[in-house]
Amino acid sequence: MAKRAQKQVPHPPSGLLKGWQQIARFLGQPVSVAERWAGTGMPVMRQGRFVVANSEELNAWLGRESAGEPVHVATGDTDLSAELKRGLSYIRSEKRQSARAPGPKKR
Fold first, then answer.
1. Average confidence (pLDDT) per 10 residues, the chain, 107 residues
2. pTM over 0.90
3. What secondary structure, in 3-state letters, does 59-103 show?
4. C-alpha–C-alpha distance, residues 56 and 63, integer Å
């Protein structure tokens, strides 16, 4: 008996979020907030009747919107200890830079 050739369906990229529910869950926000943020420049695209977003692009957008502070949405496979170390390193470098910054000149 001959085997039938199965049609290969391409798997979506791992960082692709499809629909408002997935995007909102990734952001940890209600769907209404995700939709509102999309209206203010959050990177989402229409793909047919669906809205899609890339998780890496969302993280980059969150970083820009947070005034330069490092922001990263934690997922199930995120190494939280590495993220904590990254955040502490950022804080320490900011303190060092502000300590080195020259103050106002005295006359």
1. 47 76 90 92 93 91 70 65 71 71 58
2. no
3. HHHHHHHCCCCCCCCCCCCCCHHHHHHHHHHHHHHHHHHHHHCCC
4. 11
Q: Which two tokens stand for residue 18?
A: 């499809």
Task: Output the six-digit token pair for 36.
Answer: 């509102």
Q: Which two tokens stand for residue 37?
A: 């943020």
Torsion of CA 68, 73, 77, 80, to 10 degrees: 60
Q: Is 67 left (phi over 0), alpha (psi -120 to 50) or beta?
A: left
Residues β-bridged to residue 18: 52
Contacts of 61 (CB under 8 A, 6+ apart): 41, 42, 43
CATH topology of domain 16-100: Arc Repressor Mutant, subunit A (1.10.10)
